[in-house]
């Protein structure tokens, strides 16, 4: 399966990298590389990780990588990485904003 990153996921990675790099540039590069590796690895086992419980019709799944959560949706021929968020963030508000 092909892995694609939504604009929001790319923005999340940039923000994570910048935040960590402010105090430890080497650690920032390692964290980003690990998050990217875990994201691309989803192509091998897309259904291995739990669905995010919510009453939405969307079937969003999440994979933990250290303190971060990788949120994604599985399509017919691709996996879209939607967001990459720190585990303490209110992911429900971000993934399922009220209208």
Q: What does this molecule look like?
A:
The longest helix has 17 residues, at 25-41. Helices cover 37% and strands 26% of the residues. Helix 1 packs antiparallel against helix 2. 19% of the residues are buried. It has helices spanning 7-21, 25-41, 91-95, and strands spanning 2-5, 60-65, 68-74, 78-86. It has a 4-stranded mixed β-sheet with strand order 1-4-3-2. It has 99 residues and is of the alpha+beta class.
Order of adjacent strands in the largest pleated sheet? 1-4-3-2
What does the largest sheet look like? 4 strands, mixed
Encode the helix/strand succession as letters.
Answer: EHHEEEH
* Through-space gap between termini: 32 Å
> What fraction of the residues are assigned to beta strands by DSSP?
25-35%
Helix and strand composition category: alpha+beta
Unreliable parts: none
CATH homologous superfamily placement: RelE-like
Radius of gyration: 13 Å
How would you describe this structure in keywords?
99 residues; alpha+beta; YaeB-like fold; four-stranded mixed β-sheet; 4 strands; globular
In short:
With 99 residues, the protein is of the alpha+beta class. 37% of the residues lie in helices and 26% in strands. The chain contains three helices and four strands.
Strand and helix layout:
Blueprint: E1 2-5, H1 7-21, H2 25-41, E2 60-65, E3 68-74, E4 78-86, H3 91-95
Parallel strand pairs: 1-4
Antiparallel strand pairs: 2-3, 3-4
